[in-house]
């Protein structure tokens, strides 16, 4: 490009456009980074060859509530509420409490389910779950 000065003389611009040079240098830098092999660090470990131990599932107990609000504890019908509360006290007294699952029938009364759940919590049962219908 030419610039006009006040003397009406044409001067040549002698600046260098460095943008293409920077582009080429960045491309070369990226190619260099890609081609450099990654240094991997590894630690040699002696792995065991033993058989995995069999893990027993934690013990669980089931309180089933039938459609007519009949309560059974581990497939045995409970005579009255006091007997069920005594079973809850026995569970709470154990150092490693089993999980207590409450399995209501879909036609069972909500009040009965809520009372059983509240009694179990009040008497100290810590691991309580509710089972749904499959």
Brief overview:
With 134 residues, the protein is of the alpha/beta class. It has three helices and seven strands, in the order E-E-H-E-E-E-H-E-H-E. The chain has helices at residues 19-35, 81-93, 110-122, and strands spanning 2-4, 10-12, 60-65, 71-73, 76-77, 99-104, 128-130.
- Largest sheet properties: 5 strands, mixed
Helix content: 25-40%
- Low-confidence stretches are none
Distance between the termini: 84 Å
- Gross morphology is elongated
InterPro entries: ExbD
Keywords: Cell inner membrane, Cell membrane, Membrane, Protein transport, Transmembrane, Transmembrane helix, Transport
Subcellular location: Cell inner membrane; Cell membrane
GO molecular function, one term: transmembrane transporter activity
What does it look like?
This protein is an alpha/beta fold and 134 residues long. It has two domains: 34 residues, no CATH class; 71 residues, Nucleotidyltransferase, domain 5 (2-Layer Sandwich). It is built from three helices and seven strands. The strands form two sheets. It has a five-stranded mixed β-sheet, with helices on one face. A two-stranded antiparallel sheet has the order 1-2. The longest helix has 17 residues. The relative contact order is 0.12.
Tags for this model:
single chain, 32% helix, two-stranded antiparallel ribbon, alpha/beta, 2 domains, 134 residues, 7 strands
Task: Describe the SSE topology.
Layout: E1 2-4, E2 10-12, H1 19-35, E3 60-65, E4 71-73, E5 76-77, H2 81-93, E6 99-104, H3 110-122, E7 128-130
Parallel strand pairs: 3-6, 6-7
Antiparallel strand pairs: 1-2, 3-4, 4-5
């Amino acid at each position: 490009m030419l610039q006009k000065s006040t003397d009406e003389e044409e001067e040549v611009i002698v600046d260098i456009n460095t943008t293409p040079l920077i582009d080429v240098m960045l491309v070369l830098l990226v190619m260099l980074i890609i081609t450099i092999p990654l240094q991997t660090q590894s630690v040699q470990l002696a792995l065991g060859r033993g058989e995995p131990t069999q893990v027993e599932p934690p013990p669980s107990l089931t309180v089933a509530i039938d459609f007519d609000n009949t309560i059974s504890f581990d497939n045995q019908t409970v005579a009255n509420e006091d007997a069920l509360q005594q079973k809850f006290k026995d569970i709470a007294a154990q150092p490693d409490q089993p999980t207590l699952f409450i399995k209501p029938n879909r036609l069972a009364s909500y009040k009965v389910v809520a009372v059983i759940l509240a009694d179990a919590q009040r008497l100290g049962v810590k691991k309580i779950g509710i089972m749904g219908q499959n």
